[in-house]
Specification:
This is Transporter. InterPro entries: FApF (IPR025737). Keywords: Signal. By secondary structure, the chain is mainly β. The protein has one domain: monomeric porin ompg (Porin, Beta Barrel), CATH 2.40.160. Helices cover 2% and strands 61% of the residues. The strands form two sheets. The protein has a twelve-stranded antiparallel β-barrel with strand order 1-3-4-6-7-8-9-12-13-14-15-16. The protein has a two-stranded antiparallel sheet with strand order 10-11. Strand 14 and strand 15 form a beta hairpin. The two termini are 21 Å apart.
């Protein structure tokens, strides 16, 4: 199964991809459900440069739930979003704590269409806005890989820098206007003869306050679970899902609806194909995650198409 493992390392970058939907006060955050799931998420890459291209599509709504966004109370939210994101990961030959050391960064570009009703006392206002935005920058100062036989482990730190377009007077923004610090630990068990893989990724996110709205999103915990089966050296299928829980409430004078703890879960199918392009190993994966059990967040369907090259 060595060729399989060689191809799989080109997909093992999903832990670093966590773009926001649009704003935490609006029922989301820097965590996007399902983005941490994939094939071989904790496999240690060979030294080199890895470039991952992601296309992501989302449709979600909030039903009758109410949210606070840019200082307003909103309801009847509906969001359509398409995103392209480029992630670069540099895997070095250096070791730290007995692990292989890597670092990287990612930057999303979002196209969004948002409709909602703004509560203004007796005179509510409805709006429908769209736009193209550069979103917040993700930095990966450290990512460590360990290997023990069929078991593979990864620990990483991700810092989300609020460089995306944000204006409190706008109905729709591409950035969140606050920093996030995320610690993630993942494990992959890959049986080389049977081609069976089980992986999970556990992440903790701490968010700073949005200074423009005096709203601080609570601390978040998410768990991604993946059960994959490789049918050949180049093709695999899987079942992947997530569980999300906000473990502390929102705070600050801008949290007009109280602590507002969100939660969600989701599950869906995935497929993977490995090959080469121009002599470079190429890994392509596609996934669909359907959400359920959602509270105080947008609820919908997530579609992912990813292609990773290694050099």
């Amino acid at each position: 199964m060595k060729p399989l493992r060689r191809h799989l390392i080109t997909t093992a970058m999903s832990l670093f991809i966590s773009p926001s939907l649009y704003a935490a006060e609006g029922g989301s955050s820097h965590y996007t459900p399902g983005f941490y799931g994939d094939f071989g998420v904790a496999l240690e890459p060979e030294p080199g440069l890895y470039l991952r291209n992601d296309l992501y599509f989302y449709h979600g709504d909030a039903g009758r739930q109410r949210f606070v966004d840019v200082g307003q109370i909103r309801s009847e939210l509906e969001l359509d979003m398409a995103m392209y994101m480029l992630t670069a990961l540099k895997v070095t030959e250096h070791e730290l704590f007995g692990a292989q050391y890597a670092m990287g960064a990612y930057l999303p570009v979002l196209a969004m269409d948002l409709s909602a009703t703004v509560e203004l006392g007796q005179n509510d206002r409805s709006f429908d806005d769209d736009g193209l935005f550069v979103s917040d920058l993700g930095l990966i100062p450290i990512s460590l890989y360990w290997n023990c036989g069929n078991w593979h482990f990864n620990a990483s730190e991700i810092v989300t820098v609020p460089i995306g377009q944000y204006d409190q007077d706008d109905d729709l923004n591409g950035g969140l206007n606050y920093w996030s610090f995320e610690t993630t630990f993942s494990t992959t068990y890959l049986h080389p003869e049977k081609g069976t893989e089980f992986s999970f990724a556990l992440g903790y996110i701490y968010n700073t306050e949005n200074q423009d709205t005096n709203y601080q999103t609570g601390q978040e915990l998410h768990l991604e679970l993946m059960l994959n089966q490789y049918l050949s050296e180049t093709f695999a299928i899987g079942l992947q899902g997530f569980v999300y829980q906000q473990i502390t409430g929102d705070s600050g004078s801008g949290a007009l609806l109280g602590d507002f703890k969100g939660e969600a879960a989701g599950i869906g199918p995935a497929v993977y194909w490995a090959g080469e392009l121009g002599g470079c190993p190429l890994g392509v994966s596609a996934r669909w995650i359907h959400e359920f059990g959602v509270d105080k967040r947008l609820e919908g369907d997530h579609f992912f198409l990813s292609a990773t090259f290694s050099f």
